[in-house]
Each structure stands twice: as C-alpha cells, then as structure tokens.
Design brief:
4 helices, about 80% helix
C-alpha cells in the first residue's frame, strides 16, 4: 500500500494543521480577553453583519459557516447569553 503523502508533504501538512490550530486558539483568546466573545461567536456575527437586514435563518447561517444547524443553535444561545450579560453590565454602569 502506498502512502498518500511523501515525508516532506507529511511534515508540511502537519505544520499547517499545527499553525491553524495555534492561530485559532490565539484568536479565540484575544477575542475573549478584549471583547468577551469567542471565535465562533465572532464567526456568527460576521455572517450576520454581511446581510442587508442583519438577520438570517439558522439554516442560512449554518450553510454560510459549513456548520450543522444544531451547532449554530447552540452558538446563538451562547451568544445571546453573552449579549444579555454585557447589556446588564452597561445598564448597571449607567445607573
């Protein structure tokens, strides 16, 4: 049975996977520290921001992100919770 990648290609592939993973982790940490949202939250917000009405159905967000609808639903629930916490803090600060 032949290998599908040469040793050099295998090293390059693993390097790409490692770099992608590290980049995603760093972006997630930065978004959480600075804005209180996760990278998946941000991805959903980007998709919504690119629509003229700022609204999409769950299946449309799922298609745009190549996610399962259940993942989008879970992410929207988490994002709603984060948004509620932020709005509560802003209201407290205004009092």
């Amino acid at each position: 049975m032949s290998r599908w990648l040469t040793d050099e290609e295998q090293r390059a592939w693993r390097g790409l996977l490692r770099m992608t993973s590290q980049l995603n982790a760093r972006m997630n940490r930065k978004l959480l520290q600075e804005y209180g949202i996760s990278l998946p939250d941000y991805e959903v917000l980007v998709v919504l921001s690119e629509t003229p009405e700022g609204r999409l159905r769950v299946f449309e967000v799922a298609d745009a992100l190549a996610w399962e609808q259940s993942r989008v639903s879970h992410q929207l629930a988490a994002l709603t919770e984060v948004t509620t916490c932020v709005l509560d803090r802003l209201a407290d600060a205004a009092d």
